[in-house]
Structures are given as C-alpha cells and as structure tokens.
Amino acid sequence: MDDGSAGTLHRLDEFADCAEVRLRVLDIRHRAELIRLVMTERPWGVVHLAARHFIPDCETVFASTADVYAPSDSPHSEHNRVGPQGVYGWSKLLGERLLCEQTDRLGDCESVIARLFNVYGPGDPHPHLLPEILRQARRGRVLHLGDLGAARDFVYVDDVAEALVILLRRAQPGVVNVGTGTAVSGRELVDLVASLTGRHLEARVDAARLRRRSRPVSCAAADRLREIVPWWPRTRLHEGIRHTITAGRCAGHRSAGTWPERDRHNQQPYRQRPTRRAPMSAATTEIIARAVIRRDGQLLLVRQRTKSWSFLPGGHVEPGERVEAALVRELAEELGTGAKVAGFVGAVEHGYVEDGVTHHELNLIFDVAIDAAEPVSQEDHLEFRWLPLDQLADANVRPSALKNALVAADDERTPFWHGWNG
Length: 422
What we know:
With 422 residues, the chain is α/β, with parallel strands linked by helices. It folds into 3 domains: 1-51, no CATH class; 58-251, NAD(P)-binding Rossmann-like Domain (Rossmann fold); 264-418, Nucleoside Triphosphate Pyrophosphohydrolase (Alpha-Beta Complex). It has helices at residues 31-41, 87-106, 129-139, 157-170, 186-197, 223-228, 237-251, 323-335, 400-408; strands at residues 59-65, 110-116, 118-120, 142-145, 151-152, 154-156, 174-178, 184-185, 202-205, 217-218, 285-292, 294-295, 298-304, 314-316, 339-354, 357-370, 382-388, 416-418. The strands form 6 sheets. It has a 5-stranded mixed β-sheet, with helices on both faces. A 3-stranded parallel β-sheet has the order 1-2-7, sandwiched between helices. α3 packs across α5. The longest helix has 20 residues, at 87-106. The two termini are 56 Å apart. 29% of the residues are buried. Mean pLDDT is 83; it is low at 251-258 and 261-283.
C-alpha cells in the first residue's frame, strides 16, 4: 500500500506477475478507505513504513509545554530561562532541542515550538486540577485536592487547536507561548466552579496530593501570540468551564458534568398521564443512594438552609462505586459520622426537566444506623432535623414520590418500587 507521492511505484513493476504481491494505491490518512481495505484483505501482520523522510517538505509545529521554564512568580516570556522540574518538562525540552538541531542542519526546514500552558476542556480523562474538581464535586461537596495556592494559566482547548493551525500557517520560526496571560489559583478555580454550578463546595488540602516540587505560579506572557492572533484568547475562563460542564452533561459523560444541582431536590415529579408517554430522552440516568435513619419514632431529614423543603440524606453514586459504600461516604461527608447499612427499603424513579434537558434519577433507599448520638451538619449550607414519622405525610419532602412511597410502606417493610410515569 502506497500513495505514490514519492514517484517510485514503478519499482514494483517487477512484481506485476507475482500472485502474492498486490499493490493498492492509497493514502493511509484516508481512514475509511484504509479500514475497508484491511477488512477486505484481513492481513495477518502489518509493516508500517509510511513516512516523509525528506523533512524539508514539512512545516512543523511542535507542541511543547510551559513546564520547560524555570519556576518564577512572573509571567514567562519566550526568552526566559528554562529549567524543567520533572520528567515531562525534560522530555519536551529535549524534543525542542532535537527539532532545533534538525532545523539548523537542514536549513530549509521551518518549525514553530508552541509552549502550551494548562489546557482544559470537555472530555479530559486525566486527573488534572479542573477535571478532578469536577469529578469530586459530582460525588459530594467536600473536595480533597493538592496545593490550592498554586496559580495556573488555564487555556481552553478549542482556542489552543485554532491557535496551532494559525501558527502552522502564519508564524515565523521560533518559540510561542500558548497561554492567556492570566493565572488563577486552585482555590479561585473551586470558587468559580461552585458559582457556575450553584453549589457550595468546600476544598480541603490532601497531603497525599501535594507534590515534592511545585511551581507557585505558571503564567504566560502572551504578547507574541497576540501579534499573530489578535483576538487571543477567544474563550474566557468562566465560559470555558461552563462549556465543559454543559458538554459533559449533554453527552452523558460523567467525567465532566453530571451534577447534583443546587435545585435537584426541589424539582416536582412529572404528573402521571393516562396516555402512553414518548421514550425518555434524558442525557443520562443518575443513581442516588438515600438513607432512612429512624430513631424514637422520628425520621432524619436534611434541607438546604435557604430552601423550605427537605430530603433524605445521601448523594450520588460514582461510576464503579458500590451503592452502599457511596451512601456511607456521603453520610460521613455530610454528618461526620460512621454509618452501617441495615437493609434495602425500596427504589423510586424521579424525573424533571431543567434548562430544556430531561433528567432521570434512580433513588435507591436503605435503612441506615449512624454512630452519632445527635447528627451535626459538617456543611454550612445544610441543616438536619428529626421529623416525627406521623407528620411525614404532610411534610414538604422531595421528591414527593419518594415521600409517598415511605408513607405507604407497610409495617413489615416490604421493599417497594415506584416507577416514573413522566
């Protein structure tokens, strides 16, 4: 297989009468055609030799990193001293040097080194700071993070992609910083996420997450990039984070945005309809573990201090997490107490529409015993109270389908199932 661009296909003429050799003229960058060929021929092995060996044919943009710079409290210009602090920075710096040596040797080869600062956006699978904040915030309100005082220059992935294409077409050879010129601390980032999601988030420093060597500040001096790309940057930080959360929610990708929203507990369940409903179009189904904690004829409820309704303690189950373990974790975060799951009470589906998006919850309810003699909220925005069970029917507890199922439960506590008729 060859695309013929080197002009050497005639050298295969000697194999024209060989049944074991078949030539296919194909550019391997044409993915669909390549897949069809492989599925048809089903080779037992592949020797990959496709490449441009004459480097001056290529214009190169090398994606490097801000980690090549020596630590500094001031924004880094392209002429600042380098001094990587880790293997990633060193690997990129060595790549820069190899590229520069090759460029100097060949003479006609042009290359640009783009030093990327902290790139963020939808679908990032790595435990970088922003994805980790979003991931932990889906599980609860207390975040365990590393150095919250360190400041980083966060640049949105779409802007980076557009800048790299422009650098390939327009830039003069050399080094260009790809950053916004503004550094934001970890604590400021948590506050911004809390503001955008309408949730109270508490960030705590986890000593196990602290690095032995840390840069207090990593920020770009982006003057050269702005000379080439006058509109830079296109996406402000709060807009980029909002895009990240929204894109994750719409895609049903829990790594970026399926949230226990600020108003999650006040949504009214859909009214039952006599006609058959259309297939549900919710972006994802969320699993929530809830605790029925009884004591002396009373039921433990929780409410947000600014709201009038209450709900059962508990929270979201993370993908791959055992439901019982998630419930114990949530109670520890909310009440600061140990808990033991005593048995399964029932399951209730719940649905609502928010911002034009259909949401679907599956609430799994368990009998739970807690260690604390008197529960004390560990989160400032939550308030716990005991409600006499004989007052439950008239109480404003949401979702109401769950309250009604508890009221209707028989004395033998037979597990119940309440489907969603939305």
